[in-house]
Amino acid sequence: MNIWESNNSTDSKQRKIQSIGATRWWAKELALKKVFGDFNKPENSLYVVVIDTLEKIEKNDKINPDTRVTAKNHKDNLLKYENIITAQIFLKIFSITGPLSRYLQTRGLDLLKCNHMLETTIEQLRSIQRDFISIQEATNTFLRWAKLELESKDIDADIQEHFTNVRRRYVKKFYEEKSIDEQPQSPEERFKISTFNMLMDIAVEAMNNRFLKNMDICRDMAILDPNNFEEICNKKSLPDNCMKYLSAKIIKYNSTATSSQLKEELLSFASNWEKLKLTLEDTYKTNYDLDLHIIEDDYDDEDGIDTGAYCALATAYQYLLTLPITQVECERSFSVLKYIKNRLRNRLTDDRLESFVIMNMEKSILNTVDNEEVINSLAAESSLLKKALIY
Asked: Distance between CA 262 and CA 245 in Å, rounded?
């Protein structure tokens, strides 16, 4: 760390290498960008600084031999052309999937926008699925920049500019086989087939399996979002194919939850939403200057609208509220738990620990609670607390 800070004396706090966390979605992208920079833009990377630091550790006689050998191995791996071009592949993938990953971690995400971003991300991945030339161009750009930086700082590091020739593996021809297994001739072609094509195919297939099969249910969930009720009221109609997928899922729980019934109830529910969401106090404030008979009529209408009026729609909401959209909240709860139940608080009871976790995760609700009400509530539990809390 002393050698690292001496190489980054002007900006030691900002120029840090990012550790890769197992539970942080963005950790791998940020760690890779710290060392190699952005795709086709290596100017802000720490690659040259890392190479310089590792070389100084390797040549420092005061450091133990194991550390020096480890530093040499890390430096040699970073100078290999195969590792540099592999890093450029992942930088290209992260540049496409990164915005989607960050949006999926936000609170209160819009499912409709999420679907659009998913479709766009998958299309972009498919468009570069066999574009190996752009990866090579980005790698050459990185190599030109790295060589100039290494020469300007007099760093004696031999960075590779092409694939190393490895002896081609001979595949034995088995009995009764009519054709010989054809192996790629050049190391570049072997890397393109075995690494680049495979990585891109895995990325596209993973996106399809994880997201595309759930897009139908996500669309139906988005149309049930109250934020979209204004658009539904303006158009006064719903798409013909909506609610079909959701209806097929919940029809076994409610025989009346057909797609046509769900659309009919949703149109009515969306048109009445502005009044249905009003509290009793808001109702009196809204109708304060109106005639008494109008107030009574409106109140009767609202009182008659309950889950019985929207039976199929209520089943749909109950079903959808049990489906987790992402795993972010679950992972966030474990992150909160790690900070609350530390080694100094390892004897917290389950009830108290649960209360602390809920308060930490729902800070927006906690900030609206009046402290005086909490104190008065605790003081009312016993005379001892009353003497201690009430002055």
From this structure: 11
Pull the structure tokens for residue 193: 């087939």
Calculate the alpha carbon distances from 39 to 35, 83, 92, 135, 136 in Å.
12, 15, 6, 9, 11
Look at the block and give the residue holding tokens 């791996």. Answer: 77
Residues 6+ apart with CB under 8 A from 115: 215, 218, 219, 222
Local structure of residue 195 (DSSP, 8 states): I
Task: Identify residue 270 by its one-letter amino acid code.
Answer: A
| Cβ 93 vs Cβ 140: under 8 Å | no
Q: Are 97 and 211 in contact (CB under 8 A)?
A: no
Out of 86-100, 215-229, 256-270, 326-340, least confident range? 326-340
* Token pair 């600084």: residue: 49
Distance, in Å, from the CA atom of 109 to the CA atom of 107, rounded to the nearest integer, reads 6
Surface-to-core class of residue 70, CB atoms within 10 Å of its CB (0-12 exposed, 13-18 middle, 19+ buried): middle
User: Whole-angstrom Cα distance, residue 155 to residue 50?
Assistant: 11
First to last CA, the chain: 54
Mean pLDDT on 297-320: 65
- Give the burial string for 267-282 (b: 16+ CB within 10 Å, else e): bebbebeeeeebeeee
For the stretch 204-260, pLDDT in tens is 998 888 887 778 888 888 888 888 888 888 888 888 888 888 888 888 888 888 888
Task: Read off the pLDDT of residues 335-390 as tens digits, 9 standing for 90 and up.
Answer: 788 888 888 888 888 898 888 888 888 888 888 888 888 888 888 888 887 777 77
Does position 127 have pLDDT exceeding 70, yes or no? yes
Backbone φ and ψ of 41, nearest 5°: -140, 80
Token match 């106090």: residue? 281
